[in-house]
Design goal:
The complex is a heterodimer.
Chain A lengths: L1 E12 L2 E12 L3 E6 L5 H9 L6 E6 L2 E2 L3 H4 L2 E4 L11 H12 L4 H11 L15 H13 L5 E5 L7 H18 L2 E5 L3 H7 L2 E6 L2 E7 H7 L2 E6 L3 H11 L3 E4 L2 E5 L4 H10 L6 E6 L2 H14 L1
Parallel strand pairs in A: 3-8, 3-9, 6-7, 7-8
Antiparallel strand pairs in A: 1-2, 1-4, 4-5, 9-10, 11-13, 11-14, 12-13
Helix pairs in contact in A: 3-4, 4-5, 6-7
Chain B lengths: L13 H17 L2 H20 L28 H4 L4 H20 L1 H8 L3 H34 L7 H28 L4 H12 L2 H10 L9 H7 L6 H28 L4
Helix pairs in contact in B: 1-6, 2-4, 2-6, 4-6, 4-7, 4-8, 6-7, 6-11, 7-8, 7-10, 7-11, 10-11
Classes of the chains: A alpha/beta, B mainly alpha.
């Protein structure tokens, strides 16, 4: 069963197609990294799933049921754009309102539980407006975690966080999927952070899903490469091309793709009279992969 | 890496959903200073009217305390401020209060939490209407208390037919449901335009369209079909039929506005 299954989803704003026939499949228990440029339709898709917007066409199913099913909806937690807290109310009061809304039997225990998860247990009497950005983001997560959600939808939850805040957020997300069996749909521009936690990826462009893949598939597509410099770049390049399958000259360096054995490369060049002046092992990460994919699509 | 847990989903009944939504709205109501401010305003206004229309001011609007609550007979056609300044003003304050109350839902973004977990837009309409009707009914009570205290202080007459007064008070409190539903509907329509929402609530709360119609039609009982008309009809000569009229009119408009509001929310983007 899939947590989210979207087919042919459309949403237009005054003739402008924000989401244009989008398909999406998010398996249960996944941390689904939803990637795309600004204005590509990520937030619109998330709002459509949450029922904030009315679709112009297409189907949304959550856990095999209609996205309008009250039984499913009561188990969705969301943090989209802002936390949706009342600034003059305390952290406790804001969480209490959501507990009452969800019909949680022991709200005080539930509030303590979620505040502990987001490491905010000492701040529950603080007025929301007095909280820092990082604290607000964590309160938003805490709010979304109330009532044992089966699906969390998080729109840019790590925006504006410092390094430590990002680390805490990352640990929280991994913890809730592992220990609470929650499925997470998370959009972020900070691809390096997303890469550390996502089990699945969906790449959206101009309202269309251009690629969906698992972390393993992404790993296979993200090549490793070695960059090196020698005094005779031209000669070394010709030599290496005969020895290795994928050798390119880029940015004034020779790049050898998908070869882990750097010592072997150095030995090979030395034996053939090409001393190596500089050598470095690199990996194409999610960010590079995404940029390459985007430029490929632009060219197409 | 992916877990294969299959979560279970139990659909809550309307009563369960409404209990949750009402719980939030009442929690918010009792934790927002605006509610208490409006309760105090509702108490102060009649006291001001009574005390400021004493002999020293040279113009006496009321010699009977209970006229600050309702006129002796249904006066749809307003001749002066004296015909107008009674408990029906609670519905104007109520309109402003409802606009602020619902406006905060949208300004803060909290409405997203509500609509994420509550797929049924009817829950939202009903909950807001009931909560705000309760708030307006409470304002009617503080208005009564303010009137009685001011009447005792200025020594105004307390003569009244107690039964009719009780029916009048009860009628106006019942009308709160219809008014609250109207304001909820207006605020849903103008949810992205707080200024227009509050202005339209104020405008309709004053009953100006009905007063205008009354100027043309005269004191016609047909005006009782409208919220302002029935609110005026709940006067100091009310009887059981008046109460029944208030109940039918208030419930009918409440149902209509709640259904219309639900349809609007179902068919348009809510945030």
């Amino acid at each position: 069963m899939n947590a989210i299954e979207i087919r042919g989803l459309k949403k237009s704003f005054r003739g402008l197609h924000a989401v244009d026939g989008l398909n999406m499949t998010v398996p249960v228990g996944a941390i689904y990294g939803f990637i795309g440029e600004n204005g590509s339709g990520k937030s619109t898709t998330e709002k459509l799933i949450c029922g904030h917007l009315v679709p112009s066409g297409g189907k949304i199913k959550l856990f095999g049921k209609s996205y309008r099913d009250a039984g499913v909806r009561v188990r969705i937690g969301a943090l989209i754009e802002n936390t949706g807290c009342f600034p003059n109310s305390s952290v406790y009061q804001n969480l209490m309102m959501q507990c009452i809304n969800l019909g949680i039997e022991d709200p005080d225990a539930e509030i303590d539980r979620v505040l502990k998860i987001v490491r905010m247990e000492d701040n529950k009497r603080l007025k929301f407006k007095k909280c820092s950005l990082g604290m607000k983001q964590r309160i938003g997560i805490a709010m979304a975690l109330l009532g044992d959600p089966a699906l969390l939808i998080l729109d840019e939850p790590i925006n504006g966080l410092d390094t430590d805040g990002m680390r805490i957020m990352r640990e929280i997300l991994v913890d809730i999927t592992k220990n609470y069996g929650c499925t997470v749909l998370i959009s972020s521009h900070i691809l390096g952070e997303l890469e550390k936690i996502a089990t699945h990826y969906g790449i959206i462009r101009q309202g269309k899903m251009i690629q969906e893949l698992t972390a393993e598939e992404m790993e296979n597509r993200c090549q490793t490469y070695t960059t090196l410099k020698t005094p005779d770049m031209q000669g070394a390049f010709g030599l290496l091309r005969r020895q290795y399958a994928d050798v390119r000259v880029e940015d004034g360096t020779i790049r050898i793709y998908d070869v882990d054995d750097t010592e072997g490369i150095v030995d090979f060049l030395m034996q053939n009279g090409h001393p190596v002046s500089e050598i470095k092992k690199n990996r194409i990460g999610l960010e590079e992969y995404y940029i390459e994919l985007m430029s490929r699509k632009e060219g197409a | 890496m992916t877990r294969t847990l299959e979560p279970r989903f139990v659909s809550p009944s309307l009563a369960e959903r409404l209990r949750g939504m009402l719980g939030v709205d009442f929690y918010r109501l009792f934790h927002t200073p605006n509610y208490y401010i409006f309760l105090v305003i509702a108490a102060i206004i009649p006291a001001m009217i009574l005390t400021m229309t004493g002999e020293e001011s040279g113009e006496i609007l009321y010699t009977n305390t209970w006229n600050v609550i309702a006129a002796d007979i249904p006066l749809y056609v307003v001749r002066d401020i004296g015909d107008y300044a009674n408990m029906n003003m609670v519905f104007i304050f109520g309109g402003i209060m409802v606009s602020i109350f619902i406006g905060h839902d949208y300004n803060s973004g909290y409405v997203k939490q509500l609509f994420t977990t509550h797929a049924k837009k009817l829950d939202y309409m009903l909950s807001k209407s009931i909560t705000c009707a309760f708030a307006m009914a409470c304002m009617c009570v503080t208005y009564l208390l303010g009137s009685v205290m001011a009447g005792l202080i200025v020594g105004a007459s307390m003569d009244v037919a107690v039964g009719s007064l009780a029916v009048s008070l009860l009628g106006k409190m019942i009308m709160s449901m219809g008014w609250a539903s109207l304001y909820t509907f207006l605020n849903v329509i103008f949810r992205r335009y707080f200024g227009i929402a509050i202005a339209s609530s104020f405008f309709l709360g004053t009953g100006i369209p009905i007063i205008g119609a009354a100027a043309l039609l005269g004191n016609s009982p047909a005006l009782n079909l409208f919220l302002y008309g029935s609110s005026v009809n709940a006067c100091l000569s009310s009887n059981f039929a008046t109460l029944l009229t208030c109940l039918v009119v208030s419930v009918a408009w409440a149902v209509l506005y709640n259904l219309l509001g639900t349809a609007v929310l179902e068919r348009s983007d809510v945030y």
